[in-house]
UniProtKB/TrEMBL annotation:
It comes from Caenorhabditis nigoni. PANTHER family: AAA DOMAIN-CONTAINING, VACUOLAR PROTEIN SORTING-ASSOCIATED PROTEIN 4A. InterPro entries: AAA+_ATPase (IPR003593), AAA_lid_3 (IPR041569), ATPase_AAA_core (IPR003959), ATPase_AAA_CS (IPR003960), MT-severing_AAA_ATPase (IPR050304), P-loop_NTPase (IPR027417), Spast_Vps4_C (IPR015415). It is found in: Endosome membrane. One of its GO terms (biological process) is endosomal transport. The gene is Cni-vps-4. It comes from the Eukaryota. Residues 51-187 form the AAA+ ATPase domain. It is a peripheral membrane protein. PROSITE patterns: AAA. Belongs to the AAA ATPase family. This is AAA+ ATPase domain-containing protein.
Amino acid sequence: MRKKKKRRRVVWLSISSFEKKKKREMPGEKELQTATPGDVEVRYRRRNRKPWQGILLFGPPGTGKSYIAKAVATEAGESTFFSISSSDLMSKWLGESEKLVKNLFALAREHKPSIIFIDEIDSLCSARSDNESESARRIKTEFMVQMQGVGLNNDGILVLGATNIPWILDAAIRRRFEKRIYIPLPDIHARKEMFRIDVGKNYNTLTDQDFKVLAERCEGYSGYDISILVKDALMQPVRRVQSATHFKHVSGPSPKDPNIIVNDLLSPCSPGDPHAIAMSWLDVPGDKLANPPLSMQDICRSLAQVKPTVNNTDLDRLEAFKNDFGQDGQE
Ligand SMILES: Nc1ncnc2c1ncn2[C@@H]1O[C@H](COP(=O)(O)OP(=O)(O)OP(=O)(O)O)[C@@H](O)[C@H]1O
Ligand SMILES: [Mg+2]
């Protein structure tokens, strides 16, 4: 069980679909911000208006559910953030697992306001059945009691769950997550923003129009798919250098100090180029190799190879669950 306090890494702004300037929000962002226990109590002091005690994030894989939790952890301010996974709670000793669940909640109550984040909650809280193990059932029971039990005060505690197969969850556990927020695949604007975030500060020649075209062509890609696509594209210039047979001298920022422009850098070129020198990349000294920019062609080449990971069958099931029990994070 790990306890995290004030970890500054992922902030709301590093998650696309959240741009204050354009008044667009990340899916479920408003709910999560007002649900952060400390915030509601301290900032609003709303009497008789209790914040949500259980929020379930569900959606296709790679849409940033775990990533959102990281942002919540960072932005939680005074709240204590507990991040646990099912393996943390599994013990081979009889009765030990329930005790761990109990201790977790006891600790959260002690350090409130606190947030308990359980990633991949489906593995812990699937529907109860006759042929499951005794210990699995006990964990679920303890969870249900701890989340909403008689005589237990859960004020100031938010349980945040994430899953990509929400229909597996036990109905009683599902009820305890009062808010069920669907984190869908990114729309065109979010995809454009994701490309920008992923390309980041890497040396590139991409224009605003290029980002727009890429976003249009990546319909059905998740945030994770886009990050893989850009990662692959960033390797394309490296591959080009490795397979080049001719290089030519160019000027550009020195690899040692980008503020100094030097004229003797070597960059791959076609053998027909008038200034081409026949050599392989192994002959080029490390500090003389020009840093090739990431271009639109590089991304297009990767686009032909990197396919989306989510298929329509998965989406249909998630959509059906959303219609039955959930709420769209983008509404
Ligand atoms: N909205 C987003 N903004 C920026 N990056 C994103 C976004 N969504 C996904 N990513 C990228 O995809 C990666 C994977 O996201 P994450 O692990 O949160 O997916 P997940 O929804 O938890 O998937 P799974 O359901 O499989 O656990 C992140 O580390 C991040 O780089
Ligand atoms: Mg995840």
